Amino acid sequence: xxxxxGARTLRLDDxxxxxxxxxxxxxxxxxxxxxxxxxxPDPYSTLVYAARGSDVRATIVDGALLVDDxxxxxxxxxxxAAEARRAAQQLAARAGVV
Length: 98
Prior knowledge:
Layout: H1 2-9, E1 26-30, H2 43-49, E2 56-61, E3 64-68, E4 71-72, H3 77-95
Antiparallel strand pairs: 1-2, 2-3, 3-4
């Protein structure tokens, strides 16, 4: 209801809002076998309040698989880590910490 209603409100319901052939879609598949998501009286609440980023088994953005079996598909993890370190150093320098 939220996705279809939001798409309709934005007048984009012909492009987004539901999972259909020809529409743009961003999806995640969450592994719900972990102990932290086991007490599951309300699966929606459990997903929002208990699931973690590390529970994401797959991520699909606009039809492209970005995470498969918990691992990024189209990225260089070492380069991401190096860029994060560079950004942290620059931020610390601007803040006068280093």
